[in-house]
Amino acid sequence: MAKKINTVVLSADSRQFYKETSIGTAKPSLEEQDGIKHHFIHSHSIHQPLTSAQFEKKALEILETEFQRYETIILVGGSGLFIDALCHGLDDVPHDENIKNQLNIEFESKGLAPLLVELEANDPLFYAKVDLKNPVRIIRALEVIRITNKPFSSFHAFQSKKRPFEFQKFVIDLPRELLYERINKRVEIMLENGLLKEVQELLEWQNLSALNTVGYSELFDYFNHKITLEEAIELIKRNSRRYAKRQLTWFRRDEKAIWIQDLTTENQLQNIISYLE
């Protein structure tokens, strides 16, 4: 699509930012990028994770420059929170480094379970929709709750901030059985491409928040002798399918999104371009 309309790509897939994780995130190779500039691919380190607020700020700076050369820019992904951060803006949510550090200490010493209990008791609305395996988002929500004594969800009214551009969201909507078949196949391709070796080389940093994600968490458990390799592979497939389901649920909140149900990439492309003409 970028070649057809002569533009660049911004990635809002928060798993593909990191230089150390390529196979398990299905990061597009240089061949797949095909000479098109891709911002936020292989751009950061797992040791300096990029927050949604940092992404919003940096992406707006990039767009300001790129819109001087291109009329239309493609945003792809992935991570609904990061897409919303750029398109709609984030609410001004308080931050306290001491409280955040205390929560991280609690997480490292006692695990995620007690934090989940606290979150459910204080903000059942956010608890019901958040990824319960994502400690970064759990800790961030509890940080705000402890600072303000208010639910974290009360700070997310989703009132769009003024942006110097217009945008249209397109969501690829494949039949569920086909989507799940492709997810399962992609996991097998990742393994063929060396996912085990990639995860093994990251073992010493397995507690970093950027690595607490599907495809890595399960194999860390395998290398730590908690589960078998077969169990890890099945969990990766299952958790990937569940993540895809949550993505679709997230995008359904936007009544203006256009859902593309064509099965082939070429038809999807033509359908999207027809809306832009």
Instruction: Catalogue the unreliable spans.
Output: none
What's the overall geometry? globular
Task: Please identify the oligomeric state.
Answer: single chain
Number of alpha- plus pi-helical segments: 13
The CATH superfamily of the largest domain turns out to be P-loop containing nucleotide triphosphate hydrolases
Gyration radius (Cα, Å) is 19 Å
Plain-language structure description:
The chain is globular. 51% of the residues lie in helices and 5% in strands. The strands form two sheets. A three-stranded parallel sheet has the order 2-1-3, with no helix packed on it. Helix 5 (97-110) crosses helix 8 (135-148) and helix 6 crosses helix 8 (135-148). It has two domains: 2-91 and 159-276, P-loop containing nucleotide triphosphate hydrolases (Rossmann fold, 3-Layer(aba) Sandwich), CATH 3.40.50.300; 97-155, Histone, subunit A (Orthogonal Bundle). It starts with a helix and ends with a helix. The chain is mainly alpha-helical.
Summary, kept brief:
This protein is mainly alpha-helical and 277 residues long.
Task: Please describe the topology of this protein.
Blueprint (H helix, E strand, L loop, with lengths): L1 H4 L3 E3 L18 H4 L4 E2 L12 H15 L7 E3 L3 H8 L9 H14 L2 H10 L1 H6 L5 H14 L21 E3 L3 H17 L2 H6 L16 H7 L5 H23 L6 E3 L4 H12 L1
Parallel strand pairs: 1-2, 1-3, 4-5
Helix pairs in contact: 3-4, 5-8, 6-8, 9-12, 11-12
